[in-house]
Amino acid sequence: MNGEPQSPPAPRAAHPERPPELWVLRLSLGVGIGMLALKVIAYWITGSAAIFSDAAESVVHNVAVAFALFSLWYSARPADREHPYGHDKIDFFSAGFEGALIVLAAIYIIYEAVQKWVRGLVLENVSAGLWLTVAAFVINGALGLFLVWRGKKTKSLIVEANGHHVLTDSWTSLGVVVGLLLAWITGWKPIDPICAILVALNILWAGFGLMRRSFHGLMDVADPEVDRAVREVLDAEIGKHGVLFHGLKHRRAGRAIWIDLHLLFPDETPLWLAHAQATEIEDAIEARLGPEARVSTHLEPARDHGRVHGDTHGATTGPR
Questions:
Q1: Helices (H), the chain
Q2: Which of 18, 128, 206, 308, CA to CA, is 20 to 30 A from 216?
Q3: Percent above pLDDT 90 for the chain
Q4: Which pTM value belongs to this model?
Q5: Structural domains in the chain (count)
């Protein structure tokens, strides 16, 4: 760094608004309603506990998608006086709500499977029910893979969580197919409710996984990948500008990544130059993490930092 005047940096581009993904969830809801109708018909003609479990999970799925649609619309609203950080955190509420519904559905499926087993098992028209369930498995599998891919591409937790739920629904249908085939081939009807219970346990696992991700997001659990990427950029930038940093913090809120840190400059650095260099560092971090990064820096003179904190307080300079 030198004291020669430097031209001020060009104005920074504003962060683009998050692209609308409502059409993706509308597609998911439309397909989900169609799959529910298919499974209800399959249950009506077979009386299978396993197919009932599949249909019950689809009811929960459609309710969750409807809530996810609202959440995605709400999260896209711009920041306002009451929500200065925006509305992105509703992503975590949506994922947690969907996870809780999945858990409740799994518990109900287990209850109904046991009840059917106790009351006596009757299976009819297994062949027709199998074909309908196979169709549901194929359609949901394709849709789920698309939603997970789309959610990761757009960094939308709502869309990705919905994709995982659709895939869970698809694996549920596959488990039902296997159970019905075994019951049909062997003639041992208890395979049907046993299969329903196993499917419910798999759903339970997926539901708790979504709730865990929701909890971590709401509690601002640090993302190790983001931390590593930011520190790599800072190691390069502070060496170039001859500054120190400390107090690095970051958290996710939907797609947005909020990053805060303190930068320490030599005492003789002019304010305009410190601000220009801080802006370069912010731009470098945002270039690494993408337009969803929101970086805020606090500028401090090194001497005053020592007076306030008493030491370097974890300040870092150069690659480690």
A1: 22-46, 49-75, 90-119, 126-154, 157-186, 191-218, 224-241, 271-289, 302-309
A2: 18
A3: 11
A4: 0.60
A5: 2
